[in-house]
Amino acid sequence: MAEIPVNMAGKAILMSVTLELDEQVLANLPFGPGERERHMQIELACRFYGHGWLTLGQGARMANLDHYAFGVALAERGIPRQYGVAEAEEDLVHARR
After folding, report:
1. 78 is in which domain, residue-wise?
2. What number is the average pLDDT over the span 26-36?
């Protein structure tokens, strides 16, 4: 399992991503300005997980959700849970906390 980069205080190092999107298109979304970014964050995490690019734990961290809430977000989008060795190891680490 890949290590998560942390700073001296033990906090995960975060990266900011800027997207240039058409404002008229964004205005048609059913979200307010403060909600759009949050929904995009969750949507990207779900799609990346669905493609197999992230484990459940990584997807949950990317979406800034706990494992259960991320599982709900996946189910809402019809994305099946993948369960392999990496996920089993994550579950063991999570269960020992």
Report:
1. 33-95
2. 83
